[in-house]
Specification:
Length: about 350
């Protein structure tokens, strides 16, 4: 025991002695619970201030973060609304609406498939009519309002997408029937032209029109494609050639009728002349036998000179023919005149005769 006590005392001495001649510092007393040494005290107000600053910083950071997120949401809503409205405008512009109205006016007898007309009417009704829709997207609008506007634009866009599909279908059906009708009309016109070409041979005033008709028929046979206009143009060219041939046929028919009428009139005139001449000759001979004689003077009588001869001025009836100037002039010109008695009365060939002449 003694040895142990001596060793313990010795150890204490070694501990208490400074190492290397250093002065030993007083031992600090640390309170239980690990608090700060009692010698470094802080003010009581420091902790609430620190807590308040921290809370304010957190709130401010939260507000800033919320504002940033909200701005991003607003910008996204504005962009979404703008794109939805732009898409809708593409389907409801003035030209597109005019096309929809035209398609809606197509009737069942104008299309190959009547179901397309029914579908078009249904789509227009579902879209609540064909009209311009105005939806606004403004930066001043709230995020909720922008999202609502975008949703409305998309809904209307979907309805007009159905209208657009129905309009294309009914228009295609109409075009198909138009093409079919144009082909049938051209075929019928070619048949008409071919019959006229055969019937008009030798009946034309100008045979060049017949050559033009043949050329139009050949060109009509070359019409092809999926556009009705090509077949309508060929039919129009055929009709123009047909009209020219018909006009030429009519001109020749009228000319033939006029020639026939003239020939008939000439034949009737000649027949009349042939039937009337013997009667007149017979009457003239008879009148002359009744005593009208026209004596010719000898050369030199009445006006002398040369070899002319003139009828006698003395009538066999005993009166002077110069008393009747017209008769005398006719006799001088070699015409046969009427037979006049001695009282100046005409007894034969009295055409145009009057006693005063």
């Amino acid at each position: 025991m003694a040895d142990h006590d001596g060793e313990g005392a010795e150890d204490l001495e070694n501990v208490s002695d400074p190492v290397g001649g250093e002065v030993s510092a007083p031992v600090a007393i640390v309170p239980e619970g690990g608090g700060a040494p009692s010698g470094g005290r802080r003010p009581r107000w420091l902790l609430p201030v620190v807590v308040t600053v921290v809370v304010v910083a957190v709130v401010v950071a939260g507000l800033v973060g919320w504002r940033v997120v909200e701005n991003r949401r607003h910008d996204a809503a504005l962009d979404s609304c703008s794109r939805a409205v732009k898409t809708l405008k593409g389907k409801t512009g003035p030209d597109r609406l005019a096309g929809y109205r035209q398609a809606a006016g197509i009737k069942t007898d104008q299309v190959k498939d009547a179901k397309t007309v029914v579908a078009m009417a249904r789509s227009v009704k579902d879209a609540e009519g064909i009209r311009q829709r105005t939806i606004r997207c403004k930066a001043s609008m709230s995020t909720g309002d922008l999202n609502a506007a975008a949703g409305q634009a998309r809904k209307i866009d979907g309805k007009y997408a159905a209208v657009d599909r129905a309009a294309k279908a009914v228009t295609a059906s109409r075009d198909a029937k138009t093409l079919e009708d144009a082909k049938a009309a051209l075929d019928a016109k070619k048949e008409e032209a071919s019959r006229l070409l055969a019937d008009s041979d030798g009946k034309l005033a100008d045979n060049a029109t017949r050559d033009g008709l043949q050329q139009a028929i050949d060109q009509a046979g070359q019409a092809k494609g999926d556009k009705a206009k090509a077949y309508r143009d060929a039919a129009d060219a055929l009709q123009a050639a047909i009209d020219q041939v018909n006009a030429s046929m009519q001109a020749k028919s009228q000319a033939d009728q006029q020639a026939a009428a003239q020939a008939q009139a000439q034949a009737a005139q000649q027949a009349s002349q042939r039937s009337g001449s013997p009667q007149r000759k017979s009457a003239t001979s008879s009148n002359r036998r009744k005593g009208y004689t026209q004596s010719r003077p000898t050369t030199g009588q009445h006006g002398g000179g040369g070899g002319g001869s003139a009828p006698s001025t003395q009538h066999s009836g005993g009166f002077n023919l110069q008393d009747y100037p017209n008769l005398w002039n006719q006799l001088q010109q070699g015409h046969e005149g009427p037979a006049i008695d001695n009282q100046g009365n005409c007894i034969a060939d009295c055409y145009g005769w009057t006693g005063s002449n």
